[in-house]
Task: inverse folding
């Protein structure tokens, strides 16, 4: 048996096996469960890296669950693509890499962070299921399967948001998130069912090869875009995001950030591979651009007035999602027009995907820093903190790196991805980069305030005895810091080898279809 | 929860055991009739609800233990995973035990289903355990509210002492 | 399936889709207007059921029998099995979410002492 043939299956199998074995591992005490947790997460990371290595060469991995062929051939000779299918191209592999690294860092962090709380068994099982759901969303090639993975990750995240169940706010945030998320999931299922009713298939490759654009398809696309934009936290229905991000244990928030990125991946996959004829070049692209600008601007406006560190970062997440929506909207606007695509479309998409990866790393790092502050001081209120840079030098240093990256200060990776987005959106309309730059300035102001309030200034009497957080938490943060610095130091290599390949894979609809239907 | 009247307990006595037998039938025939692991497991799990409603918590937990259901859930999930791995040289979940179409068929009433029926049994175990645990956890959370006994001995997360 | 049922189903035509739409709109309306959390939970369950009904209806074929090869008898057509698989999966997911939602409501009631969703507002701004 050739292991490399089964990589896509391992991607979901390993976290599921981890979740199933958790009750056993958790009953053997602290050391065994920590080793088990970190070991399984590093296995997932290894699988993710191997998948990247085999897809960035340009080939598309197709894996069929439970059979060798994806289609069922009836005795009459007719064949239907009905089986459960995984299809990973370069864009999917990029998202898988983001999720795997963030999940690994969050697991390292949680080993120490969750140590003094009870309920380890449930925490570990839900964490594994959440990573399985997020990885599955990036790997699947089948719309219904996408819905199943969305639900797996949603149910696990409801449990994790409400994890501290003796805390009223946590339960409230979990309930709120659940309410809107369930309605969205049901609408998603209605859209998928409608497509199934018309084309007798839920396989994305088969669907996009059969697609004829009419009114029904437009309605379905509208539902899909609104649902997935909600799941990734875009402006009109964003209120669940700061609540859920603030109340979750920090190691999990780090993973929730990438789960929202997986929904974003679903959105761009639907636009570029399923409905390029409707989504490209017209109204849908402008809707995404406007949504992006509004999320960016209003997210940061709400963030600057916050006093609670994790809620503040939650509002910044909304504004960062806005950048990606803007970039993908600009890319969609140029879709189908080779001249425009070469002029600004490809740059926008590369910038957007670059920003996806940047955001997953520095935002996750910021949430881990906030968790470290909470762990050390026991408060999340910025007004009560002060002078912590003396007590926690490592945390302060990593916070500075992440905050400079998110604010787009020139040498850091955040600046480069934002620069690509400014450059390309300027070609569409000069007001778009203006909004983006104002957002960037406000982000800088907001994080300068956080840094000043938490780390600088005179030492507070309450926090004299505060020490640096345990080594495992620092290790989790260090993983993300190293990734941020790598992206800062070698942007050219990453752009040429990862983001450009991923953008080309998204644009190559024919290749995506042929990888599935090649034999038909 | 207090025990209900003698009429309810007698009827529940009869029906609860019938539900187990019927649920096991549904699980075992999942591969060739409508039904299967989840549906049958849900039917079997009604046993616990019947007993809990009829006899009340104190009497019920004197002879049933939540750990048993946790064990059932674990065994079911692990077995499901192992059966999935049976197909491995080909692909995950591949039905390697099934006799292919056109092979020798012994009886036209019992089709060969391979790992599907084994998986039904595994899922049945899992669902029995999980649904029973859900009911038990819900019952215990009501009980916590009634007696004001905190959240099951968990340490305070919001206002922990440094 | 007896002939009379087939005739009845054929005579209603697309009216069954109308029922699905009605159920879904009713559920969405109730989610927005109701204040009681238990009622909101019930409306989300109704929304889920309407989606499941929709999926099953998609697989219906005129005069179709159950899609099990050796139980269908002499019938020529079978209804589509795929939507039924999708529905089963959706039902399992809906069961899990409903159970979780009810558990959260129990905890919320313990913390806040009310089921009114307007009074549960500690997270603001």
Result:
């Amino acid at each position: 048996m050739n292991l490399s043939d089964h990589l896509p299956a391992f991607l979901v199998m390993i976290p599921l096996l981890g979740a199933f074995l958790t009750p056993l591992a958790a009953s053997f005490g602290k050391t065994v469960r920590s080793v088990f947790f970190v070991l399984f997460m590093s296995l997932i990371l290894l699988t993710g890296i191997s998948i990247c290595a085999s897809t960035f060469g340009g080939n598309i991995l197709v894996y069929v669950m439970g059979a060798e062929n994806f289609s069922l051939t009836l005795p009459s000779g007719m064949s239907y693509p009905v089986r459960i299918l995984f299809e990973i191209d370069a864009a999917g592999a990029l998202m898988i890499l983001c999720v795997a690294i963030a999940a690994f860092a969050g697991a390292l962090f949680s080993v120490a962070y969750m140590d003094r709380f009870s309920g380890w068994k449930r925490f570990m099982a839900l964490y594994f299921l959440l990573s399985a759901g997020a990885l599955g969303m990036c790997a699947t090639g089948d719309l219904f399967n996408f819905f199943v993975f969305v639900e797996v990750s949603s149910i696990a995240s409801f449990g994790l948001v409400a994890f501290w169940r003796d805390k009223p706010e946590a339960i409230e945030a979990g309930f709120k998130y659940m309410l809107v998320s369930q309605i969205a999931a049901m609408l998603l299922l209605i859209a998928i069912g409608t497509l199934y009713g018309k084309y007798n298939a839920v396989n994305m490759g088969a669907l996009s090869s059969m697609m004829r654009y009419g009114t029904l398809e437009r309605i379905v696309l509208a539902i899909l875009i609104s649902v997935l934009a909600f799941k990734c936290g875009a402006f009109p229905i964003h209120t669940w995001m700061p609540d859920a991000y603030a109340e979750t244990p920090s190691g999990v928030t780090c993973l929730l950030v990438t789960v929202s990125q997986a929904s974003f991946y679903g959105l761009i996959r639907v636009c570029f591979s399923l409905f390029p004829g409707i989504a490209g070049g017209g109204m849908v692209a402008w809707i995404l651009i406007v949504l992006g600008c509004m999320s960016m601007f209003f997210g940061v406006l709400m963030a600057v007035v916050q006093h609670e560190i994790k809620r503040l970062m939650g509002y910044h997440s909304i504004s960062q999602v806005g950048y990606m929506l803007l970039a993908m909207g600009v890319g969609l606007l140029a879709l189908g027009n080779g001249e425009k695509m070469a002029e600004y479309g490809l740059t926008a998409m590369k910038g957007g995907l670059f920003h996806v990866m940047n955001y997953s790393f520095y935002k996750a790092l910021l949430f881990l820093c906030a968790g470290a502050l909470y762990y050390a001081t026991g408060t999340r209120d910025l007004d009560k903190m002060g002078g912590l840079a003396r007590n926690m030098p490592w945390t302060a240093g990593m916070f500075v790196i992440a905050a400079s990256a998110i604010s787009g200060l020139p040498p850091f990776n955040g600046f480069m991805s934002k620069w690509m987005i400014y450059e390309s959106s300027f070609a569409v309309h000069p007001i778009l980069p203006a909004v983006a730059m104002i957002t960037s300035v406000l982000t800088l102001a907001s994080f300068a305030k956080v840094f000043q309030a938490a780390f600088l200034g005179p030492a507070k009497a309450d926090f004299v005895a505060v020490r640096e957080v345990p080594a495992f938490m620092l290790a989790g943060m260090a993983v993300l810091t190293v990734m941020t610095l790598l992206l800062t130091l070698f942007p050219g290599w990453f752009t040429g080898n990862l983001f450009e390949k991923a953008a080309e894979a998204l644009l190559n609809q024919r290749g995506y279809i042929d990888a599935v239907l090649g034999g038909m | 929860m207090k025990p209900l009247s003698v009429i309810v307990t007698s009827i529940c006595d009869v029906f609860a055991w019938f539900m187990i037998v019927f649920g096991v039938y549904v699980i075992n025939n999942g591969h060739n009739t409508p039904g299967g692991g989840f549906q049958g497991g849900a039917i079997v799990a009604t046993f616990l609800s019947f007993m809990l409603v009829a006899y009340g918590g104190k009497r019920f937990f004197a002879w049933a233990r939540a750990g048993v259901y946790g064990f059932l859930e674990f065994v079911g999930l692990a077995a499901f995973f192992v059966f999935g791995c049976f197909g491995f040289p080909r692909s995950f979940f591949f039905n390697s035990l099934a006799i292919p179409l056109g092979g020798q068929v012994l009886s036209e009433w019992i089709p060969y289903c391979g790992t599907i029926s084994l998986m039904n049994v595994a899922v049945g175990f899992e669902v029995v355990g999980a649904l029973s645990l859900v009911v038990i956890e819900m019952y215990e959370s009501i009980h916590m509210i009634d007696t004001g006994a905190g959240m099951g001995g968990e340490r305070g997360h919001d206002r922990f002492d440094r | 399936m007896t002939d009379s049922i087939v005739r009845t189903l054929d005579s209603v035509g697309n009216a069954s889709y109308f029922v699905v739409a009605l159920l879904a709109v009713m559920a969405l309306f109730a989610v927005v207007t109701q204040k009681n959390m238990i009622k909101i939970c019930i409306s989300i369950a109704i929304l889920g059921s309407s989606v499941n009904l929709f999926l099953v209806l998609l697989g219906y074929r005129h005069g179709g029998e159950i899609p099990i090869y050796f139980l269908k008898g002499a019938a020529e057509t079978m209804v589509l099995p795929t939507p039924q698989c999708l529905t089963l999966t959706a039902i399992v997911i809906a069961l899990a979410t409903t159970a979780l939602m009810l558990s959260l409501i129990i905890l919320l009631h313990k913390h806040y002492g009310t089921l009114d969703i307007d009074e549960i507002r500690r997270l603001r701004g």
